[in-house]
Amino acid sequence: MKFLPLVLANLRRHKLRTLLTLASVALALFLFASLRTVVTTLAAAAQFGSARRLVTQNATGIVFPLPLSYANRLQAIKGVKAVSYANWFGGRYGDNKRFFAQFAVDPQSYLAIYPEMVVPEDQKQAFLRERSSALIGRRLLDVFGWRVGQNITLQGTIYPGDWTFTIRGVYTPTDAVINDDMLLFHHDYFEERIGRPGIANWYVIEIENADSAATIAKTIDQQFKNSSAPTKTGTEQAFNASFSTMWGNVSLLMGTIGMAVVFAILLVTANAMMMSFRERMSEIAVLKTVGFTDRILFGLVMLESGLITLVGALIGLGGAKLLYRATNFNAAGFLPGFDVTTNTLLVGGSIALLLMFASGLVPAIRAARLPVVQALRRAE
Length: 380
Prior knowledge:
The chain is built from 14 helices and 12 strands.
């Protein structure tokens, strides 16, 4: 530590260069943490799902509805504990600058199957009683300034017209992977407004024993195989994972971009360290003449590189962690639970260490091996 003032003095020699190099490292690791968090968030969403919940959709695709009459037949299958259903609504609010998902659900069964959505009991009962009521995620209170008891109007896209709802409850998810910016409303009200066609986009099925999931799923699909609307049934986890695959190979894309950014910053940092070494060759020679050993000079250059990269890592990684947590960022509902994980911070820290060695090793070795006479002759 007694050589730290000397290292700090060297860094202050060219303050602008030091600050720009530090900012480059911080920005690179901030981008790395952000890109990797997209991957980890999507992976967490793909893994979410109760082992005791199945999802049944039309075998042709989720955009094709299933008859509402399937509900009773699903409930009658051995091993099925509860059945609920939902429809994607796809409405717009206001200027439509902020997207949020809306679903028509059977409220009683849906909330029973999803205990992860916590609603105060009085608000829950108010929502269940009123056909034109809505249940919203807590985030929407902050986004739009809504309040319980307020009337809001959505403009239908798939189902045209103005749809007015009264907010009767606010849910808080116990798992960060669940969106906290959805709007749920009564399926009965939905059916009434569109002429009672008796449709559901998908069914959520709670089963008694998770070990029976594959057998029950096969039974369901066999039962409706020859109907006008054959089904495809799988675990809730597989259903959620199918949405992640719609993004393509995001992991490879984000990883490639992140590594490219880090490599570019490696070149910038290494160049800055080499420039600093060449400018101080005569000073290094003088230090050798007054008794500084090769090992000490090697350590001084590595310490200088380490200060730049590790402080940059602290700013970049710490900034990403604090920023996304403080802003409660979730990419307008597309990345619920977006948070820089401890593992990402550890990987980022490891990259900072590699960056330190890769950028500082060559100038440190050259400083340690520098012949005094040659260095002084160059200075002349």
